[in-house]
Design goal:
Helix content of chain B: 40-55%
Largest sheet of chain A: none
Largest sheet of chain B: 7 strands, antiparallel
Helix content of chain A: over 70%
Oligomer: heterodimer
Distance between the termini of chain A: 56 Å
Radius of gyration of chain B: 28 Å
Order of helices and strands of chain B: HHHHHEHEEEEEEH
Order of helices and strands of chain A: HHHHHHHHHH
Shape of chain A: globular
Strand content of chain B: 15-25%
Strand order of the largest sheet of chain B: 1-2-3-4-7-6-5
Number of strands of chain B: 7
Number of helices of chain A: 10
Number of helices of chain B: 7
Largest interface: A-B, 49 and 51 residues
Chain lengths: ~170, ~260
């Protein structure tokens, strides 16, 4: 009988971790989201799902953080982008194992859609409402994200043994 | 071979990957995959992406939730910034000579603070009342120690109301985050049926006239909360309103200073 906001903390944290990449930033994102959710709790419409509502709030907080970050540390952020090493098969395997590093290279808008659908298992309609974009845009971003991720980890299937590449 | 066919709509392919196509369409795509190894490989990779995401991030679901996330309001830097903006507004109102504005803003701030306080109590209830293993930090058996410790941490002499005549036995208590420099305490009681009732309390701001009981209802639990001078109390539990009010009155009488 936990409070609905509390019940959703674990999945908010999962999503934030995947979105932000590191724990500190992710938990800050969750924290700010919870604060805003508690403050706006009276605005939540009964009958509508609490979970999509919370994720929509998190999307808004994330947008704000990005705006602030853009103004502050644009140059640094670009330089800190981790490069995916392309070397021997061993390294490729390691790189493949860390899907977290690969999704960091996706544009934020694509990563959000990919995670809402592929990790949080929201319906396309819910993802559209959360991000306040048309369903068609959800679909095109999802397709683009998956194709780009496939490029980034093009040896994924080979390295995980699901499909041997003849070399 | 596949070149002779129309390309699959990307949106439909995504829905196929996510298992969200109606069976008929899914079968049609299955047939396409059978004759198009490249497309089949693409789909396999997309599905592997889904699996990899879950493998990588699902463990976060099992991580213990940081205590600060269980508060109704927090003391993060941004919250403090907002508070100082609110304070600045009050000052602006005062400097502008608009007494009405100032009183309005102060009352509004007090109301917001009280509702945030009650919300904090409900969130704390939700977090700890269902806990069967460790609902409290210090159990009722060590009541003297509990009272001494909480008094020390809260910076004021704590009283633990006796609610046995209302059918509530003390389980124990714990210290909780409240506001900056205002830690909170939660005392937990239990009915014979095992229902839990908590009394949440902390300093709440400037000394004010005692408020009437306020009531709020959240999923399955009711809360009566009130302010006595500068101290806020919230009694939360799954009881009927009259029953809870009766308990609240008893607690109020014993806690009144």
């Amino acid at each position: 009988m936990a409070h609905p906001i509390v019940e959703n903390i674990p999945s908010l944290r999962r999503y934030a971790r995947a979105l932000r990449g590191n724990r500190a930033d992710a938990d800050d994102l969750v924290q700010d989201t919870l604060e805003r959710a508690h403050a706006k709790w009276h605005l939540w419409r009964r009958g509508s799902g609490v979970r999509p509502w919370l994720f929509a709030i998190m999307h808004g907080v994330f947008e704000n953080q990005r705006k602030l970050a853009r103004n502050r540390v644009q140059a640094v952020a670009l330089e800190e982008m981790p490069e995916v090493a392309i070397a021997g098969a061993q390294e490729k395997a390691a790189e493949v194992l860390d899907v977290g590093a690969a999704i960091e290279k996706l544009p934020d808008a694509q990563r959000e859609v990919l995670l809402l659908v592929g990790l949080e298992e929201f319906s396309y309609a819910d993802a559209a409402r959360i991000l306040d974009i048309p369903v068609g845009t959800v679909m095109s971003r999802l397709a683009a994200a998956r194709a780009r991720l496939r490029e980034l980890t093009s040896e994924l299937a080979a390295a995980t043994g699901k499909e041997r590449v003849t070399s | 071979m596949s070149a002779a066919r129309d390309p699959i709509d990307p949106a439909e392919l995504m829905a196929f990957v996510d298992g969200r196509l109606p069976p008929e369409r899914a079968r049609a795509i299955d047939e396409r995959l059978a004759e198009d190894p490249a497309l089949a490989a693409e789909v396999r990779q997309y599905r592997a992406q889904r699996t990899a995401l879950h493998d990588r991030f699902d463990p976060v679901l099992g991580e213990p939730i940081p205590a600060r996330m269980l508060q109704g309001r927090t003391s993060s830097r941004r919250a403090l910034a907002r508070l100082s903006i609110a304070a600045a507004l009050v000052l602006v109102g005062a400097a502008g000579g608009s007494l009405a504005t100032r009183i309005y803003l102060e009352r509004r701030a007090a109301r917001l603070d009280l509702s945030a306080f009650a919300h904090q109590a409900v969130v704390a209830y939700a977090a700890y009342a269902p806990d069967t293993r460790r609902p409290v930090e210090i159990a009722a058996e060590q009541q003297q120690y509990l009272v001494g410790w909480l008094s020390k941490r809260l910076g004021r002499e704590m009283r633990v109301p006796f609610l046995g005549d209302r059918g509530l036995t003390l389980v124990g208590g714990r210290l909780l985050p409240g506001e900056v420099d205002r830690p909170a305490a939660q005392l937990m009681y239990e009915t014979a049926r095992g229902e839990r009732v908590t009394l949440f309390l902390r300093a709440i701001g400037d000394e004010t006239a005692p408020t009437a009981f306020s009531f709020r209802r959240d999923a399955g639990v009711s809360t009566f909360y009130w302010v006595d001078r500068d101290w806020g109390y919230a009694l939360t539990g799954p009881l009927d309103r009259p029953e809870l009010l009766d308990v609240a009155k008893s607690a109020y009488d014993q806690l009144a200073r």
